[in-house]
Write a structure and sequence with these properties.
mainly alpha, 85% helix, elongated
Amino acid sequence: MPAYLGLFRRELLLSWRQGGEIGLALGFFVLAVVLFPLGVGPETEILRRIGAGVIWVAALLAAVLSLDRLFAADFGDGDLDLLVLSAIPLEGVVLVKCAAHWVTAGLPLVVLSPLLAVLLDLDAREIPILILGLLLGTPALSLLGAIAGALTLGARRPGVLSSLLVLPLYLPVLIFGSGAVEASVAGGARPHLLLLGALSLAALPLAPFATAAALRQALE
């Protein structure tokens, strides 16, 4: 356990030192949502109807922007080889890096979402469902994104390739997340939230093994 905690602290420290990448993803998230009303007009009913979907789409795209820093830096400077040879199983390394990625990239999206929901004039009953849905769904974004990040290591344009790989995997999270907010008006958000939680729980044991296999392939 001390080795896992030490690795987690290392990842948080590196993310803090590379704060520009985190700020880029968060800035994109905020600007995408803020600029959207300027494009569709100030009609309250339209914004209220599509607001949750706008926030979820912006969150997905912001998560894609932050995927490059999961493994690329360690792969480039040789730290990934040391992590493979360490006492921690590679699957455990992947899980710790995904947890640190969620804390630094996913959790800030959840914190900012209520402010953006007010900007889009979402109903007060929908905002708690939006926050809960993001809490349940964003871990799956980090776990699934790790697979794409590992598969594109060493590619000439990894950002574009990882986007093409991961966006289809993100579609169920988007559908159930935005669907939960829409169904909350009628009191039927529970099934969507349960499915979001199930996606994250299913990705928790499966994604580290798939990512570790892709990392071993990239290091050969």
